[in-house]
Model the fold of this input.
Amino acid sequence: MQKVLWGTAACAAFLFCHCGTALAQNKSDDGLAVGRQMLAEDNPGELWIDRGNRLFREKRGPKKASLEQCDFGLGPGKLDGASAQLPRYFSDTDKVQDLESRLLTCMVELQGFKREDMVKTAISPAFSDGSDMESLAIYITSRSNGMKMNVRLSHPKEREMYKAGEYLFYRRSGQTDFGCVTCHGEGGKRIRLQNLVHMIDKKQLQEVVGSWPAYRGAHGVVRTMQWRLYDCFWQMRLPELEYASDVSIALTTYLHRQGNEAVIRVPGFKR
Ligand code: HEC
Done:
């Protein structure tokens, strides 16, 4: 019951903010935009990239191995442009994987880490030094900087994932009866102070998919796409989104493919 009430209250608050405060928000948006620009020029996320670079080469885990033999789709250790083609199908796991689930595979197979331990620590507490996963994900993505998103859907399992992602994007569910499309399906929507990205608009979606992982000012850490989706599930009051689950990979496959041709520029900066 408690939960239901909270859901209703949140829903009412959402509607209220959405309708009532648009004018006041234009002003603060300008301030935010200036701050964003300043931070984009001197983005703390660069520190995570440096750390990821170091972690990638370090011999770690029970097998005392580095990640240099990890194959992100272009061959072992080939990082330039690799993340621009993710998610994609990998024959060794017989799965479509995004960057983070692929990193998990390599941490387990090459380095001997336990999957559960890696999953447990993948999303770091706010204002911490961040997790290994966050540093590695942003370092590997940075090796596609300046390149264009190019998710191809050439394998049948990639096409299946895309279809599932499309379905999930539009499907309303849970106690709030929200789908992704409720908040991200038209222009000019807001929730509290935040502008909601219109993801059916290709240009806006491209800015999104080219900018993750991103430094999140409000948390003082780098966040990844897995976290972003987890957080939107929470906002929808859906059951917790399992890290690196097929549901998360389906949604990322859909978003990345729809945003194909986006120029990748990380670290992004988010409020
Ligand atoms: C209740 C409203 C709501 C719903 C429903 C929702 N989101 Fe979000 N979403 C947000 C908010 C709020 C933000 C963050 C805006 C900010 O921080 O400025 C966001 C941000 C995002 C971003 C990052 C945008 C950027 O600026 O880079 C992605 C990607 C995203 N959502 C995907 C999804 C997906 C996929 C779903 C469906 C599973 C979904 N969202 C459902 C509210 C929602």
User: Anything to note?
Assistant: The two ends are 33 Å apart (CA to CA). The mean pLDDT is 89. The CA atoms of residues 184 and 197 lie 6 Å apart.
